[in-house]
Specification:
Strand order of the largest sheet of chain B: 1-10-9-6-7
Largest sheet of chain B: 5 strands, mixed
Distance between the termini of chain B: 47 Å
Strand content of chain A: under 5%
Order of helices and strands of chain A: HHHHHHHHH
Number of helices of chain A: 9
Order of helices and strands of chain B: HHHHHHEEEEEEEEEE
Helix content of chain A: over 70%
Low-confidence stretches of chain B: 97-106
Strand content of chain B: 25-35%
CATH class of the largest domain in chain A: Mainly Alpha
Number of domains of chain A: 2
Shape of chain B: elongated
CATH class of the largest domain in chain B: Mainly Beta
Shape of chain A: globular
CATH topology of the largest domain in chain A: Rna Polymerase Sigma Factor, Chain: A
Number of domains of chain B: 2
Number of strands of chain B: 10
Largest sheet of chain A: none
Oligomer: heterodimer
Structural class of chain B: alpha+beta
Helix content of chain B: 25-40%
CATH architecture of the largest domain in chain B: Sandwich
Chain lengths: 184, 207
């Protein structure tokens, strides 16, 4: 994961640096792609919204140049598109994690805070060593939670040392999240 | 951050609490209630757990990523340098700015924007239900139409490109049923992008 800030990446994009564009997309891809699903929209809508958000971002890079709140801007655009897609489907989606109130009353409040927390966690995990990243992803993202013996076997560790490795990786991630400004 | 206790709850126990909902013992619960440090740890672990198995499903498919990354090809990024902001050179309502925008007998507003050797004419018409129809035409200043089959106009509200219209062979475009709001236009043609920022539309009641 690149350490360049969003404004630095935007400036690089405007100078024709395609690597900077890729870094921006990689940084926020899961954040943006997750929003339609949280809104209860089907996969085909999520794919359209994802593309549309990035197309808007591409076309607005000039006006975003001085903005250091790219993430919030991307979320706002994605949420609005979700709202329009849902309206076009004439009715509430079957499973909605985000309420209409989240969207109508203040898209910048609770919803954005939750999405920002998730994004900070992604950013933190992205800064871990490959081994810690593997441990953390197994601990939090696999269902059901794999046994420690299984995680140890994947990493080529003895079952005795996995507890130490787990704790060290959790500590490291906690430190990174603090540095990244995680707020609870 | 204030840390009230020296001996915090073991990170492994906080993890078990966040991930598997394993109850903490009474002493740990008491500690947690007064310890910001442990609560913050528990908070991020609960957030990470809530992402859970869904997180990997939030990885966009490769074909989708390829499309989006394709936007960032160096040749396309260089086109971003060709963004030109158009200037308003005529507004049929300009002299009536301090009066209601839609006066009796006036059902349309006409504006002209210019950028380099191009002109964009806009016509706004209010319907009875207070929605708007925006029509327009992009022409070179010589009056010649735009010869670009991929030319298009985007309607942009707060950075959100909400509608797109292709240009007819005569450079014409139309957006019906618009809400009364502030919007911009972005006209893409022949490797250029002309931007018309922030046209504020209000009706006769000024709403």
């Amino acid at each position: 994961m690149t350490n360049r800030s969003d404004p630095e990446l935007i400036a690089a994009c405007l100078n024709g640096d395609s690597g900077a564009w890729e870094a921006l997309v990689q940084r926020y891809k899961r954040l943006i792609y997750s929003i339609p699903f949280k809104w209860g929209l089907p996969r085909e809508d999520a794919m359209e919204i994802f593309q549309a958000v990035w197309l808007d971002c591409f076309q607005e890079l000039h006006s975003l140049r001085d903005v250091d709140r790219l993430q919030a801007w991307l979320v706002r655009i994605a949420v609005r598109k979700c709202y329009r897609f849902a309206e076009n489907r004439r009715g509430a989606p079957a499973s909605v994690e985000l309420t209409e109130t989240d969207l109508k009353e203040d898209p910048s409040a609770g919803l954005v805070q939750r999405l920002e927390q998730e994004q900070v966690i992604r950013d933190g995990i992205g800064k871990l060593s490959p081994r810690c990243k593997q441990v953390i992803e197994a601990l939090f993202f696999e269902e059901p939670l794999p046994s420690y013996a299984a995680i140890a076997a994947r990493l080529g560790l003895s079952a005795n040392s996995i507890g130490f490795t787990r704790d060290r990786c959790l500590e490291r991630l906690g430190t990174l999240l603090g540095e990244l400004g995680y707020e609870y | 951050m204030s840390v009230k206790y020296d001996n915090h709850i073991a990170i492994s126990r906080l993890f078990e609490r966040a991930r598997t909902k394993t109850e903490l013992d009474t002493a740990s619960q008491t500690h947690l209630a007064g310890c910001d440090f442990c609560r913050e740890r528990l908070s991020w672990m609960e957030s990470a757990s809530a992402l859970g198995a869904k997180e990997t499903s939030y990885e966009p498919p490769k074909t989708l990523m390829d499309n989006v990354l394709g936007l960032g090809r160096a040749s396309r990024l260089k086109q971003l340098r060709n963004f030109i902001v158009a200037s308003l050179t005529f507004d049929s309502f300009k002299d009536l700015a301090s009066l209601p925008v839609r006066a009796e007998g006036v059902a349309a507003r006409q504006m002209t924007y210019e950028a380099e050797e191009f002109e964009i004419g806009l016509w706004l018409r209010w319907s009875e239900d207070r929605t708007l129809t925006l029509t327009g035409q992009v022409l070179s200043k010589t009056g010649a139409p735009i010869k670009d089959s991929s030319a298009q106009v985007d309607l942009v509200i707060d950075g959100d490109h909400i509608k797109t219209s292709s240009l007819s062979p005569w450079g014409e475009f139309s957006f019906p049923d618009l809400p009364q709001t502030k919007f911009g236009l972005q006209v893409s043609f022949m490797g250029r992008v002309l931007r018309i920022p922030s046209i504020l539309l209000v009706d006769e009641e000024g709403s």
